[in-house]
Inverse folding.
């Protein structure tokens, strides 16, 4: 599955680097506040980024209430969640990329400084010169925030469904989470 995601990421980066016209999509799903029992920690408010590879990264902007209004999705790039997704024209005739974002929620447990985030990409469709890629994904991040509030070390579990491909195996994904380290940045 990681090889498939790497291939999709590479194809999409090539697609984007060739030039595109990015448009936001309006959504009927407004951002949801964080589902939490305790106050979201002030130290977490702001932008956090993690490198997935040389060509892709994750970014999450936490608001003071723990809600997530903006992300950088490792496949779709920057997304304002209040707009619901992104549509990008491709550099070649009849090429495009469409990403419809779903729920993005955070939950913080102050007892162990554990932060859990889920990000759902309800649908994506990329029309490339060589053909179409369609599917959806669910990403889960879970791990402790450092005592100094500068890093968040997570286990990342990515479930990706690609039309025409074998569905993800939950046993394999759960047993092999990818480790990422999010670092708080000065970005807005």
């Amino acid at each position: 599955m990681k090889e498939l995601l790497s291939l999709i990421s590479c194809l999409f980066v090539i697609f984007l680097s060739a030039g595109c016209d990015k448009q936001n999509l309006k959504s009927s799903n407004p951002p949801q506040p964080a589902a939490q029992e305790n106050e979201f920690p002030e130290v977490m408010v702001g932008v956090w980024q993690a490198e997935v590879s040389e060509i892709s990264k994750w970014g999450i902007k936490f608001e003071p209430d723990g809600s997530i209004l903006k992300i950088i999705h490792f496949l779709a790039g920057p997304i304002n969640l209040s707009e619901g997704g992104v549509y990008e024209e491709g550099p070649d005739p009849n090429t495009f990329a469409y990403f419809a974002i779903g729920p993005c929620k955070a939950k913080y447990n102050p007892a162990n400084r554990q932060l859990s985030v889920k990000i759902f990409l309800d649908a994506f469709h990329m029309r490339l010169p060589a053909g179409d890629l369609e599917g959806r994904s669910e990403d889960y991040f879970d791990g402790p925030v450092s005592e100094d509030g500068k890093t968040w070390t997570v286990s990342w579990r990515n479930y990706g469904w690609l039309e025409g491909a074998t569905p993800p195996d939950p046993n394999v994904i759960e047993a092999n989470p990818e480790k990422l380290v999010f670092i708080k940045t000065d970005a807005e």
